[in-house]
Amino acid sequence: MNKIAVVTALVGVDPASVGNLYDIEHDSADYYIFTDREDLKVPEGWNKRILYPCSIDKKYEFRRACKTVKQLIHLLLPQYDYYIWHDSCNRIGADPREIVKVLGDGDMGLFQHPLQNGWKGEMQWAAGREHPDLVQNTIHVLEKMLKVPNSGIVWETTGFVRKNNRKANECCTMWNDLLTKFTSRDQVTLPAAIHFTKPKIVILPGSALSYGGNNRLIPNVSKTLNQMGLVR
Hints:
The protein is an alpha/beta fold. It is built from seven helices and seven strands, in the order βββααβαβααβααβ. The chain has a single domain, classed as Spore Coat Polysaccharide Biosynthesis Protein SpsA, Chain A (Alpha-Beta Complex). 30% of the residues lie in helices and 17% in strands.
């Protein structure tokens, strides 16, 4: 039987301000939260892992810490066949066994962004929540040096499904490498990682973002941290 891990992270935020983790309804997966809050109370069945943020980027170090877990799950929890990631403002809306079935022979299942087209537009849209020099440097390197096409799909990274296989692992490792060098707005660099490593992508139905329309797989259940004025 395939082993499935549902994973999220909450770092640098008072858990009372974003609500509690949801109660587990399906026992077909193991559930993990990575957090810097040793006092965080979690519902029965959740496995808490302590994650201490540490970055020279002090303004966005909490964001970067969460992205390390998101992108390198296969190194932190190597014993699983599938991973379902969702941000702490989301939840699982179906049995994990049913969610991973949508992958079929694909490597990664992603939600298409309901508003953005092209990674460059996403970077320009997110410029107000990033260091100005990183915005320009990211655009220059991806466009001029790496020749990453701007015509590709922008993917939501609020939630996704992936296998623990070579293609997915290569993609997510390169995604993390790009993030450590350039912008921490990970929706910008995922198209580049996909472009170079070429995993097979399955488009998930609907959207995991509250303004884009929820779906039954990984629905949004609260205000996003951005809407609450908190840095992500």
